[in-house]
What we know:
single chain; alpha/beta; 14 strands
Amino acid sequence: MAIIASSAAFADGHAAPEAEVLHYWTSGGEARSVAVLQEEFAANGGTWTDMPVAGGGGDAAGTALRARVLAGNAPTAAQIKGPAIQEWYEEGVLADISEVAEANNWSGILPEAIAGHMQCDGTWCAAPVNVHRVDWIWANAEVLEANGIEMPTTWDEFNAAAETLQAAGVIPLAHGGQAWQDATVFEAVALGILGADGFRKAFVELDMDTIKSDDMIAVFDQMRTMRGYVDDNFSGRDWNLATAMVMNGEAAFQIMGDWAKGEFMAAGKVPGEDFLCLSTPGDGFLYNVDSFAMFAVDGDDKQAGQALLAELVVGESFQEVFNLNKGSIPVRTDVALDNFDSCATLSADDMAASNEGGSLLPSYAHGMALRGAQAGAITDTVTAHFNSDMSSEDAVQMLADAIANSL
Ligand code: GAL
C-alpha cells in the first residue's frame, strides 16, 4: 500500500502537486462548493484535473470509477463514502494517508463515529469533507403561509398538510423519480416509524425480525401515501430540479439531504424567510459524510497532490467555506459555526444530542451503513414498490428476500 507523506515532505519543491479528482458534484450548489476546493488547491501550488460525473447520489460516478480502476487508470483521488472505502481498500488499490492524518491530528478533531469510516485496518485511507444530514424536510415559506400550514412534526401532520395543499392545487411533495431519491425519502420515513433503534436493527444490522415487522409494513404504507403527493412528471427528475420546484412555489415540500440547502443558498434564498427546514418526523439523525479516498498511484507529483488534497479538505478554512456553500456542516469539531445559518446550527445541535442519545445513525441510502450489495437490494425493493401498486406486505417480503439473497 503506497504511503503518502505529509505535504511537509514535499516542501523542498521537488514535486509539483497534481491531482485528477473524480466526483459527482455537478448541480449549482455542488459545483459552487467543489470550486472552493479547486481554488484552494491552486492557491497552494496544485494542479487540479477535474473529472466530474453527473448524476446525483453518485451511482454513475461509481460506475465510471470502477471502469477506470479496472483499466489500470485510477484517478489520483475520488469521492467515495462509507463502507465502499473499505471495499476499495480490500482490492488493494488505495493509498495510506496516515502520515497526513497524524501530522494534522485528525483523531483529535474528528468525531469518533466518523473517523472510523476513514480508516482501513488501522490506517487512514480517506479524508472526510463534511457532515450532511439526510432526514430533512424543506418547504416554501410563502406557500405554507398562504395555506395556513405549519412545518409538520409527525407523518400524520405531513399527510394532512399534503391533503390541504393538493386541494388547493399545489404539488405537496417535489420528488425526483430516481432510485436513490426514493431510498432517501424511504429511510427518513423509516426513521420516523421504526425509531432509531428499529432503524439500526433493520438497516445497519439487517435484523430479519425488524425487516419483517408490522412497523416495516407501516413504513411502506406511508410511502404509498406519499406516492400520491408527487406530480405526474416526477419520474427521472434530478433532485436539484425538485428543489427548484419548492424554490419557485410550484411545490410545497421536498424531503432530501441538506445538499438541497446548497441549492437554495446558491439561488440567494434566505433560510427561515424564503424557505424553511426541519428534520423529518422522529428522533434521530441520519448522517452522510462525503470523503475523498486516494488511489495508489506512482509519481511524487501525484503523491504530493494527494497529501495537499487531504490536508486542505480537513483544513479549518476549507471546512468553513466549503460547508457554507454545500449545505452540510463541518466534520471538524473545532470549527466555529458563527457564520452558519439556523438550519446548520439545528443540524449541529441535533447531531450532538443524537450522538449523546445513541440515535446518530449512518444513512443506508447514501452508502454509509451497508456494503453495496445489501444497500442495492434494499433500494431495488423500495423503488419497485414506489413505482408500482405493490402491496406493503409484498414489499416487506421482497425486501427480506432481496436482503437474504444479497448476503
Ligand atoms: C450524496 C452526496 C452529497 C450530494 C448528494 C446529491 O450522495 O454525498 O454530497 O451531492 O449525493 O448528489
